[in-house]
């Protein structure tokens, strides 16, 4: 392993130093900035996450600034990035660090692991980049590189596989410059050893990559199939009153989009017609509160919003009324609420002239 380790890390770091992207979190060892970037880049591509990172750094230059913000403000700034539990955990952790540690981040892997929303990967990234500790990161990019180069077919989404890859990653890390090594292997996986059709003939590891030599690149890494995707059918009731008011409700139950706002929702087991909608008990209870004059369907074809384990087939019903109840808000205020990107896209299109 020693020679393989040296060759692997040297090649990787040399490639990285010549090919790395100039990203703002690579020009600092500030643990707040590293933590912020790593949380944002979970389940998110760099190009999508970068504008949010810059927005948060500007709005909250220090962890204490993030801590003093309201959760609703943080969710609004996070809007469109998805996986909103990350934003809630981010805010909770900022308050914890600010109140319990006077704004100073823990400086070691074990204590970083105790922070809300911080797992092995994020703790390893902060520990290595900010504090030069030899803690190897293992994310999707790392799984892909290691499984292919070393020909490992153990599934990456089961306990034994995760332990095997973590052990190998720990053996390979360059202990003299762990932060650079970790960023190098993640960058290589993200930009070169990509999921589909990597340029293997010109790869720096093509003389030793087992997957390339055995023509198994497309087969690795192995991942056991999870639960089948669930289909859900959302019917949003978009209230429009004569004095340009509408209605939003906050999602308070467990599940997706916790604490975000949306239009009144009726979920059904399949697509429905207007006649069926009117007969639903939820709609009848709702209609008792309003003097409904007209109902029309905005989109005949459902908007399909794909989440990790569920697909939402969504239609927006425009409900026109002459009365505005106390629970309504001016249409012009909708943009001030934190909403899922599904709702944001509809609002941008439908309310663009308000």
UniProtKB/TrEMBL annotation:
Top class in the EC scheme:
hydrolase
User: What would be the name of the gene that encodes this protein?
Assistant: mutY
CDD domains attached to this UniProt entry: ENDO3c (cd00056), NUDIX_DNA_Glycosylase_C-MutY (cd03431)
- Please state what the protein is called: Adenine DNA glycosylase
Instruction: Tell me yes or no: is Iron among this UniProt entry's keywords.
Output: yes
| Record's catalysed reaction(s) | Hydrolyzes free adenine bases from 7,8-dihydro-8-oxoguanine:adenine mismatched double-stranded DNA, leaving an apurinic site
The Swiss-Prot or TrEMBL record describes its family as follows:
Belongs to the Nth/MutY family.
Q: What is its EC number?
A: 3.2.2.31
Briefly, what is this protein's role? Adenine glycosylase active on G-A mispairs. MutY also corrects error-prone DNA synthesis past GO lesions which are due to the oxidatively damaged form of guanine: 7,8-dihydro-8-oxoguanine (8-oxo-dGTP).
Q: Which Gene3D superfamilies did the record assign?
A: Helix-hairpin-Helix base-excision DNA repair enzymes (C-terminal), Hypothetical protein, domain 2, Nucleoside Triphosphate Pyrophosphohydrolase
């Amino acid at each position: 392993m020693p020679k393989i380790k040296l060759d692997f890390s040297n090649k990787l770091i040399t490639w990285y130093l010549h090919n790395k992207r100039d990203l703002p979190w690579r020009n600092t060892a500030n643990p707040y900035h590293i933590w912020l970037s790593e949380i944002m880049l979970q389940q998110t591509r760099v190009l999508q996450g970068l504008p949010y990172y810059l927005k948060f750094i500007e709005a909250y230059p220090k962890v204490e600034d993030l801590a003093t913000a309201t959760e609703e403000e943080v969710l609004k700034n996070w809007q469109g990035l998805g996986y909103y539990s990350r934003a809630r955990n981010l805010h909770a952790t900022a308050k914890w660090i600010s109140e319990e540690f006077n704004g100073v981040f823990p400086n070691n892997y074990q204590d970083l692991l105790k922070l809300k929303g911080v797992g092995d990967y994020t703790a390893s990234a902060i520990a290595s980049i900010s504090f030069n500790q030899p803690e190897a990161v293992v994310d999707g990019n790392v799984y892909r590189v290691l499984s292919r180069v070393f020909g490992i077919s153990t599934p990456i989404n089961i306990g034994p596989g995760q332990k095997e890859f973590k052990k190998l990653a720990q053996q390979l890390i360059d202990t003299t410059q762990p932060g650079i090594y970790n960023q190098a292997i993640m960058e290589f996986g993200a930009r070169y050893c990509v999921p589909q059709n990597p340029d293997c003939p010109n790869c720096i590891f093509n003389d030793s990559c087992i997957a390339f030599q055995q023509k198994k690149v497309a087969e690795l890494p192995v991942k056991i199939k999870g639960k089948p995707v669930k289909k859900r059918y959302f019917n949003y009731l978009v209230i429009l009153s004569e004095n340009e008011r509408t209605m939003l409700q906050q999602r308070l139950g467990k599940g997706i989009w916790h604490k975000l706002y949306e239009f009144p929702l009726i979920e059904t087991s399949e697509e429905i017609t207007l006649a069926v909608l009117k007969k639903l008990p939820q709609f009848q209870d709702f209609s008792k509160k309003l003097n409904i004059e007209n109902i029309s369907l905005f989109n005949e074809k459902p908007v399909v919003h794909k989440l990790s384990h569920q697909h939402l087939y969504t239609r927006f019903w425009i409900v026109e009324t002459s009365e505005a109840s106390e629970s309504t808000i001016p249409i012009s205020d909708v943009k001030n609420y934190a909403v899922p990107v599904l709702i944001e896209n509809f609002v941008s299109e439908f309310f663009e002239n308000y």
